[in-house]
Task: structure prediction
Amino acid sequence: MRVLVEDIDIVNYKEPVKYCNGCSLIRVFLLPYSLLVQAIMLISYIPYVLQMNHNSIQGFLEMFVFHLLLLLVLVSQIQCALVDPGTVPQRWHDSIFEADPYVRSMVPICQKCQMYKPPRSHFDSITQRLVLNMDHFCPWVANTIGFYNRKFFILFLFYGFLSFLWFLCAVVPRVYIWKEYPTNVLLSSAIIIDFSLCIVLGFFLLFHLFLVAKNRTSIELSEERYDIGLESNIEQVFGKNKLFYFIPIYGDGPHGDGVTWPTTTITQTKHNQQTELL
Result:
């Protein structure tokens, strides 16, 4: 499939990863809310790790995997919370401002921040910024999900789902099938909470994986122009180095710069035809 590039500028405006940008009073107030993730994990941790017997090779392996999953959840959440989702590069804004009137007329201006608006960017009312490839504001990490931190959000969902599923698979048979441990309030609460969250996170994870596969966001549910093939779509979230796909580290970051987005020939033609009809 042939790919076209939106021809406003072909310069790569990708910026180095930034941390703790876009702080606001609302984000500060939401920090305790994000700690609910650790509280929920603790409800599962106490009956599974501290109250059950793991004095065997199988038990040791179970504990190793469970703690590894918890570590990956925590690191993914921290990365998602601290990594700046990305805003309009000043160099890109200046290049549009200094361009000829025809080029400037092709680029919309955000009515809330008065900056030139790259494709797929949206103004975030929480952080009061124009965010590149914005998906949504997530209270669980007290940060906006955008171009530079979307990978960590997906990993946060993925490892959160796996940790809840691991707990259920390890605990439920021991309690209700093999009758090795009596039930108590904390254990029963942990099973109910983990089962509920496993279902919710499972559907939420599948939804966001679908969006990644189609190169969409929750704001662009019906957008087809940016679907340039499964592998390329994934690279624009997880980067080109597949060794980093499941590791919550930045690496080379997502492929592209968050400003210039390739589009497919078919969808670009359809979009042009719709524009002409208007």
Observations:
- The longest helix spans residues 185-214.
- The two ends are 28 Å apart (CA to CA).
